[in-house]
Design a protein that fits this description.
77% helix; mainly alpha; elongated
């Protein structure tokens, strides 16, 4: 289940994916931005798949 906190974290990662993808398009000879975008996309999916009672998400909600 997705919580507001996990959704906010994933949204941040998706913003970074967009920025990295733009940089990858600007510099196609440099594969680092595309690799980073791919990793951030996987990380966002991981965060969205965490259980509602995951202590890291709960702590994030409490802190911020």
């Amino acid at each position: 289940m997705v919580t507001a906190s996990s959704s906010a974290i994933a949204d941040y990662f998706h913003d970074q994916v967009r920025w990295r993808s733009e940089k990858a398009a600007e510099c196609p000879e440099d594969s680092r931005n595309e690799r980073c975008a791919d990793g951030l996309e996987e990380l966002a999916a991981y965060v969205l798949g965490l259980p509602v009672d995951d202590e890291r998400i709960i702590e994030r909600a409490v802190l911020g």
